[in-house]
Amino acid sequence: MSQSIGFIGGGNIAEAMISGLKKANSALEIRVTNHSNRGRLQGLVDRYNVIATSLTELVEDSKVLIIAVKPKDVQGVLKDLAGFSLQNKLVISVAAGVPLKVFYKYLPGVAVVRAMPNTSTAVLHSMTGLVRGDNVNDEQASVGEKIFSATGKIMWVPEKNINALTAISGSGPAYFYLFAESLIKAGVELGLSEAEAEVLVLETLIGSGKMIAESDKSPGKLREEVTSPNGTTYAALNVFMEEKLAQTVQNAAWACARRAEDLEGEYSE
Ligand SMILES: NC(=O)C1=CN([C@@H]2O[C@H](COP(=O)(O)OP(=O)(O)OC[C@H]3O[C@@H](n4cnc5c(N)ncnc54)[C@H](O)[C@@H]3O)[C@@H](O)[C@H]2O)C=CC1
Ligand SMILES: O=C(O)[C@@H]1CCC=N1
After folding, report:
1. What is the distance between the alpha carbons of residues 195 and 192, in angstroms, rounded to a whole number?
2. Is 169:129 a contact under the CB 8 Å cutoff?
3. DSSP assignment, residue 11?
4. How far is ligand 2, taken at its centre, from the CA of residue 163, in Å?
5. DSSP for residue 166
6. What are phi and psi of 121, to 5 degrees?
7. Which residue ranges have their beta carbon within 6 Å of ligand 1?
8. Cβ contacts of 39-46, under 8 Å, gap ≥ 24
9. What is the pTM of this model?
10. Lesser CB count within 10 Å: N end or C end of the chain?
11. What is the predicted pLDDT for the residue at 2?
């Protein structure tokens, strides 16, 4: 990747992306500007050897601008960017619930890709959804694809599907972390030390993920293979069934997608 990248916003997702991108290519030039938090910016410089800079320098020196601020702060960034010529630049927004039309309003003609990565980009296992804006040429689409492919897998989707994707893979890591936290707590309640419970949960999660990824069996089939009739797993799964875990998971994913839609709704006029 020969393109220099500039992050506007250096928070959680920017750090996950920077960490992954630097792992994939330590020579990659990355600039970051972060509003009103010098300590945060200096931390990124110290940890990843990025260049801390002003917005003006970042725009001048970066081919790709990645907007990684909270949804409520995106319009402020776009107003600032409207003062620059962005010809030949690719703008990538990772903000949830900010539709492409908002970018066109402030930056007419801009080449923008809407992306929804997840924090596993830090370990090169992100799943990133990408939406191609109207003005993105093939070369720019390929640049966007390379940036996110360097830190995991990508999927191009139409804009109408980005909220569904957010509900599964964008926010998804948090669901698995909650499950892991709960299982660690259960292990401790059952008499294991926290360190023991953590190792058991960690290895079980990684092993299950690898089984789903590497075996040719569906998650349902793999589950059946663990579940002996009237055995121990059966006893546990019965509780999940009785307490409607599957429905709860679906409700949570719907709530996530609806929240993204609500955010988008704030831009309807
Ligand atoms: N955290 C996650 O797992 C994911 C987050 N996202 C999206 O990424 C965006 C950022 O999320 P987080 O990193 O979690 O938030 P965060 O709050 O950790 O980071 C945002 C950063 O932007 C800075 N900022 C605010 N206004 C700015 C401005 N005008 N110029 C420069 N910096 C500015 C803030 O000081 C803060 O450090 C959100 O829009 C979110 O929807 C997308 C995918 C995953
Ligand atoms: O919670 C959020 O709004 C962001 C978007 C996807 C993951 N985190």
Report:
1. 8
2. yes
3. S
4. 11
5. I
6. -55, -30
7. 8-14, 33-37, 40, 68-71, 73, 76-77, 94-96, 116-119, 170
8. 40/10, 40/11, 41/10, 44/10, 44/14, 44/15, 44/18
9. 0.96
10. C
11. 45
